[in-house]
Design a protein that fits this description.
The chain is mostly helical. The chain contains 16 helices and two strands. The chain has a two-stranded antiparallel ribbon with strand order 1-2.
Length: about 350
């Protein structure tokens, strides 16, 4: 064989560095988005493999994930703080409940209205919040979560007062062949996918870049021409919109709303969920939803007398082991595993 032919041959891939045997590592790399498709395929299969109660739990995980997605947009990407996110969740839930109970509105039409009402309220809160920082902003948002419960009890003609409102759950259409729990799961999944796509597009736009600039350094962002008050207000509005949408789906799934379901504990739990899940990460809202759904029930099983103590201790342990949240811990573990395999 001539020297020219030899030089034209492709070099052999180094063992352990590349080649077909390592393509799956690149595909599952935490720096790529392929894992989202894998999670989506698994999510489509799960409701046909689990008992109804587990399907219900996963449905609630999706509901919380949508709410945490909005909180992640505000806290993780915008650098703001909110201890009143549960209030917007309640606004979406009650908007849907009142429309379905008082006006017999088709449940699908309640979703855009609930999201719009929460968006407007978030916009109204965002105006004064744009002038506040840190502890002051946290106290204002906390106050909203505190006075919401007595406010809902006061307007008994609309909200049902302390007794709340009981609603009929959406029934699956005959052509679907699905059980009620499966239909509600797929409704929640559709809303969650749409919400994640919306936020992904938002973060890739000028709005996302402005929010990141605000989070990193407000002074530098203002020097670069970012309108601080405008984007802070917009962050609150978009965050509230997603919380309202989650609250609407919550009403579909539970079929009941009452003021005691939306106390200040809900806002604190949601904030803990996104911090534990991973601020500013794609997987953070999903992992946070799993945490919010399953950890309190686990704490209840461990100690029925003091579930809050167990819940708090678990948060401390997770924050000690994974300061950047479960998403950061999973990312580091995956990268370490990939590096180990490449060295073999």
């Amino acid at each position: 064989m001539s020297e020219v032919t030899k030089t034209q041959e492709a070099p052999e891939a180094p063992v352990g560095k590349s080649g077909p045997g390592r393509s799956w590592l690149r595909f599952l790399s935490p720096d790529r988005g392929h894992w989202l498709w894998i999670v989506l395929v698994i999510a489509l299969i799960l409701p046909f493999q689990l008992v109804p109660f587990r399907v219900f739990q996963l449905t609630m995980v999706l509901v919380y994930a949508v709410a945490l997605l909005g909180l992640n947009l505000l806290v993780g990407h915008g650098g703001q703080i909110s201890l009143g996110h549960g209030a917007f969740f309640a606004v979406g839930a009650y908007t849907a409940a009142i429309m379905m109970d008082r006006w017999d509105t088709p449940y699908l039409l309640t979703l855009p209205v609930a999201a719009a009402v929460a968006f407007v309220l978030g916009l109204g809160l965002g105006v004064p919040a744009a002038r506040l920082h840190g502890l002051y902003l946290a106290l204002v948002t906390l106050a909203i979560a505190i006075f919401l419960v007595p406010l809902l009890k006061r307007f008994e003609d609309f909200t049902g007062g302390s007794m709340g409102l009981t609603l009929a759950k959406p029934q699956p259409p005959a052509w679907s062949g699905l059980a009620e729990d499966q239909w509600l799961y797929f409704l929640a999944l559709a809303v969650a996918v749409a919400a994640f796509v919306l936020v992904a597009g938002l973060l890739r736009s000028r709005v996302g870049r402005a929010l990141h600039a605000l989070r990193d350094n407000e002074i530098a962002a203002e020097v670069m021409g970012v309108r601080l008050a405008f984007y802070k207000t917009l962050a609150f509005a978009w965050s509230a919109l997603l919380a309202g949408a989650a609250g609407c789906v919550y009403t579909w799934v539970i079929g009941f709303v009452s003021p005691d379901s939306f106390t200040v504990n809900l806002s604190i739990t949601l904030l803990a969920g996104i911090v534990v899940g991973g601020l500013g990460s794609q997987a953070g809202p999903v992992l946070g939803g799993l945490f919010v759904m399953f950890v309190p029930s686990f704490a209840q099983d461990v100690n029925k007398g003091a579930p809050g103590v167990i819940f708090g201790l678990l948060i401390i342990v997770v924050m000690y082991v994974a300061p950047t949240g479960l998403a950061g811990l999973a990312g580091r573990a995956a990268r370490s595993f990939n590096r180990t395999l490449r060295k073999e």
